[in-house]
Amino acid sequence: VKFTQNCIDFLEYGDAHIGMKVGEEISMEDALYGMLLASANEVSYAIANSVNGGYDNFINMMNEKVTELGGTNSHFVNANGLHDENHYTSARDMALIGKELFKHPEFFKIVQTLQYEIPSSGTCQQHVFQQKHKMLQPSSSKYYEYAVGGKTGYTSDALATLITMADNGSMKLVCVVLRTHGGNNYPDTTNLFNYAFDNFERIDVNGQETSEDVGDILEDESGEHSGYVVVPKGVKFSDLKMEMTVDEGHTGEAVLTYTYEGNLVGSARAKLSEKYLKEHRAEIKKQEKKTKKAD
Question: 152 and 166 in contact (C-beta within 8 Å)?
Fold first, then answer.
């Protein structure tokens, strides 16, 4: 990751940085630590600028990715989050990004580091910085035992923002608080986590679904069964309403959507049962022909 004049020129008084200079070079790993721990704005710019296609292409990829994840209220125009009227997001979209991060253990390795050093070398000076997220600092009064990751944020326009991931061993959660005053972002996050852990529970769909139309619950990319629901404690799986939608793009598979009192609580991908396949053989063959023609 090389630092050009453009990586530095936009910085204003008060913007977070680690003092990188034009012409300096560091590894991508060092840069990620600088961005995620120190909120270094010049490092964020340099990372985006170093990816194939350059800075503008990286911004396009950011927008494409949030849409791919299901985001509907985000538009990014820079790589660091500094104020711009055309740069915005929502708590829901940030939560979707946080959920995706659970697939990337390297992210958690970085953000669980309390202090990091970029050593002095022939291409840069030494830089030492610390993790700013207080819920991840055991020595802080804001420390939260189930917190496993997150990122702080602040501008005078957006005020304090915070995204935090927590895992109590039975359920993983993402909490996003935006536009908070003072230090309220930490107690607000803690209270929301405690409420969710105390009042809700996760139930895996595998082994619970009894519909004769459903076969095996499919596994996700990590090899785990992908389907689960999150429901108020005391609610049984049998209390949920299931709607099955045959996946026309994947023969013999379906998406199961679960609701409780009209509220979406989870979903799963599953194989259709032999019984269902026999009863709907003609429809399935017809759909297969349509798919082949489309290809």
Answer: no
Contact partners, residue 159, CB within 8 Å, separation at least 6: 179, 180, 181
What is the three-class DSSP state of 79?
coil
196 within 8 A of 173, measured Cβ to Cβ: yes
Model confidence, pTM: 0.89
Q: Can you tell me the distance from the alpha carbon of 230 to that of 260, in angstroms, rounded to the nearest whole number?
A: 10
> What pLDDT sits at residue 223?
47
Q: Which residue intervals of the chain are DSSP H helices?
A: 5-9, 28-38, 41-50, 54-68, 91-101, 105-111, 185-199, 274-279, 281-294
SS3 of residue 261 by DSSP? coil
Which pLDDT does position 253 carry in this prediction? Answer: 92
Among 227, 226, 229, 224, smallest CA distance to 203 is for 229
Whether the Cβ atoms of residue 12 and residue 36 lie closer than 8 Å to each other: no
* CA 166/CA 53 separation, integer angstroms: 34
Instruction: State the DSSP H helix or E strand holding residue 204, giving kind and residue range, or none if neither.
Output: strand 200-204
Query: Helix (H) and strand (E) counts for the chain?
Result: 9, 11
pLDDT for the residue numbered 182: 82
Beta bridge pairs of residue 231: 201
Please tell me the distance from the alpha carbon of residue 117 to that of residue 96, in angstroms, as a whole number.
31
Whether 244 and 254 have beta carbons less than 8 Å apart is answered as yes
| 111 and 37 Cβ atoms separated by less than 8 Å | yes
Residues of the chain with pLDDT under 70: 220-226, 284, 286-295
pLDDT value for 293: 60
At residue 281, the pLDDT reads 80
Residue with tokens 């139930």, as numbered in its chain: 203
Contacts of 130 (CB under 8 A, 6+ apart): 37, 38, 114, 115, 116
Contact indicator for 26, 1 with CB cutoff of 8 Å: yes
